[in-house]
Design a protein that fits this description.
5-stranded mixed β-sheet; alpha/beta; UDP-N-acetylmuramoyl-L-alanine:D-glutamate ligase; 287 residues; 7 helices
């Protein structure tokens, strides 16, 4: 890239999350937030950039090839292994085991000279985004984070059971408190309560007053807390018999990119983002 070459102009930069997912039938595939958002972004016309990390496995190479196809900017740090999860479906839903832990996703302030972006989404899979990366880009950018990856144990061979918000590194919690939007699922926060209301209270107590908070609740839509004011936003329609992995990632991605209408509030943005998710799930059924 020369000094005269225009920088990639992105709608969203996603930091984190490329995985290898292994399934009960013996198959495996690339996954993680970066891949799920890239697929939805390609369908929705979003200009996407990704900062991630991978190992040398064939599935990781496939994931990187897909990201190259769907992104305007891609920066991947090479590590010995890619984060690997074993999936199992049971009567109570999906269960996950962390088989291999990957290396950190590295984002530095100097990276900001390599692209322009309208927003950034941090999406760790298993604690791979460190505190320095959270402060690497300008705080004037709209910033969102998906909390799931900070609330998972990182011991290999361990079934994923969500950790309490009290286990968050204090520096990470303080940095997230300066963000614009934080997203978690009801399942992510079961260590802090069984219902979205008490989970939102625990999350607000942890990160402070600034961020808008969302707790997703499957087919029941989501709960939104903005400066202590709460509202339930229902799903636009229910999509049945479609795989829902990555739905929360897509929701967060389409929520944080600034709307063309600067006066549009979080409730409307949440409803619009859930419509994108529903359309994506419908497309999965047809593919």
């Amino acid at each position: 890239m020369t000094a005269e070459t225009p920088l990639p102009a992105l709608d969203l930069l996603v930091v984190g999350g490329l995985t290898i997912d292994r399934f009960a039938d013996g198959s495996s595939a690339p996954g993680g937030t970066a891949v799920h958002v890239a697929r939805a972004a390609a369908r929705g016309g979003m200009r996407l950039g990704v900062v991630t990390s991978v190992g040398p496995e064939p599935e990781a190479a496939l994931g990187l090839a897909e990201l190259r196809e769907h992104t305007g900017f891609l920066n991947s740090t090479q590590h010995a292994v890619t984060p690997t999860f074993r999936h199992q479906e049971g009567p109570s839903g999906r269960r996950l085991w962390l088989e291999r832990v990957g290396g950190p996703v590295l984002l530095q302030a100097s990276d900001a000279s390599r692209f322009t972006t309208r927003a950034v989404l941090y999406a760790p899979i298993a604690g791979e985004i460190e505190l320095d990366s959270l402060d690497a880009l300008s705080s004037s950018l709209p910033r969102a984070a998906i909390l799931q990856g900070w609330l998972r144990p990182t011991e290999e061979g361990v079934e994923i059971r969500p950790l309490s918000l009290g286990t968050l590194d204090p520096g990470v919690a303080a940095a997230l408190g300066g963000f614009d939007l934080l997203v978690a699922s009801r399942e992510d926060l079961v260590a802090d309560g069984t219902e979205p209301g008490e989970q939102l209270t625990a999350l607000r107590d942890t990160v402070g007053a600034r961020p808008a908070l969302i707790v997703t609740n499957s087919v029941d839509g989501l709960w939104l807390d903005v400066a202590g004011q709460r509202e339930h936003v229902p799903a636009p329609w229910i999509v049945r018999d479609a795989p829902t992995v990555g739905a929360g990632d897509i929701l967060a991605a389409f929520l944080i990119v600034p709307s063309a209408d600067p006066a549009e509030d979080w409730v409307r943005r949440a409803a619009d983002a859930m419509r994108v998710v529903a359309e994506d799930l419908e497309a999965r059924k047809r593919s």
